[in-house]
Amino acid sequence: AGGTYLVTGGAGYVGSHLVLALVERGDKVVVLDDLRQGHRDALPPGAELVRADIADRRALEEVFAGWRFDAVFHFAALSLVGESMREPLRYCAENVSNSLRLAEAAVKAGCLRFVLSSTAALFGNPERTPIDEAAKLAPTSAYGDSKLMVERGLDWADGAHGLRSACLRYFNAAGADPSGRIGEDHEPETHLIPLAIGAALGTRPPLTVFGTDYPTPDGTCVRDYVHVTDLADAHLRVLERLEHGSCRYNVGSGTGYSVREVIEAVERVGGRPVPHHFGERRAGDPAVLVASSQRLREDTGWSPKLGALDEIVRTAWAWHSAHPRGFDDRNKA
Ligand code: UFG
């Protein structure tokens, strides 16, 4: 503790939960965020916001000139799989160039610790499950490939510049700060849990279940939901781990739940039905994505504290029912 950290995209969903954890343990945090997706209200008192696009080179130079960072946490990115298939060039260009320029600026400033928000989308349709770090890297989306290119750039930067990087491949980030201060507020929202909760609360339309003919026990897709506060904790732990060199970790709870099981959990926790109907498969969705986080557990002592699905849904439900329109700074029609 007592360090100084740059968090890009720190006003976004996963980033803001890390910022909270850093500020709570007494670190100085500078957030670089243009608030296109992020929310000012997601930042705790004490976190400093530099409101700028990560692509703005001048802003980046000023940030590195203004503070001496112990590490950079990089969350700011385009992150919608479906959108990436319609605009692959934008996804590759923006995610890759923004991330590698950020790494370059960090190296120039002498900051040689870099933590990347990476994704299970690196693995495409995995050959076996649970997915460990030895699994083949074979993204099936431009989004996943853009993150893989960033990981590769960071590999090269380790050899050439001694830039130590940790890449955390998140499975399905979900839930909200257990004390209710911040939560998930995307626009557009594409994620299952907030959409199911919104359907139950009546703040969103009925849910469409994408596909019922997958080779899974109940025919719907199986995912590994990991609590966003546990994800934040994984970031703090890999920071220590960087003392030993660069590292790559898959981060999930290790348990898979089907779309139907998630709907049942929302109904159980919320005590209300989730209006839903069954539709076609969504293009690009693998049947089963479950992480092996054994390496992370062994190397850092991490384990999910809020890992149970009902616990994840309970914290998400509390946030959405208290903030039916999301953060106050968003003026939704
Ligand atoms: N789903 C529905 N209806 C919806 C939304 C989602 O049935 O309205 C289903 C999806 O088909 C999927 C599951 O719920 O089976 C979870 O979908 P999400 O969109 O919540 O999450 P994904 O697993 O598609 O995406 C996550 C991350 C991405 C990452 C991807 C890796 O959000 O950033 O995993 O495949 F790239």
UniProtKB/TrEMBL annotation:
The pathway where this protein functions is: Carbohydrate metabolism; galactose metabolism
Requisite cofactors: NAD(+)
Listed A to Z, the keywords are: Carbohydrate metabolism, Isomerase, NAD
Per the record, the domain of life is Bacteria
Q: What is its EC number?
A: 5.1.3.2
Residue limits of the Ketoreductase domain?
A: 3-159
> Which SUPFAM superfamilies does the record associate with it?
NAD(P)-binding Rossmann-fold domains (SSF51735)
Catalysis: reaction(s): UDP-alpha-D-glucose = UDP-alpha-D-galactose
Which protein family is it in?
Belongs to the NAD(P)-dependent epimerase/dehydratase family.
How does this polypeptide assemble, per the annotation?
A: Homodimer.
Q: What is this protein called?
A: UDP-glucose 4-epimerase
User: Species name for this entry?
Assistant: Craurococcus roseus
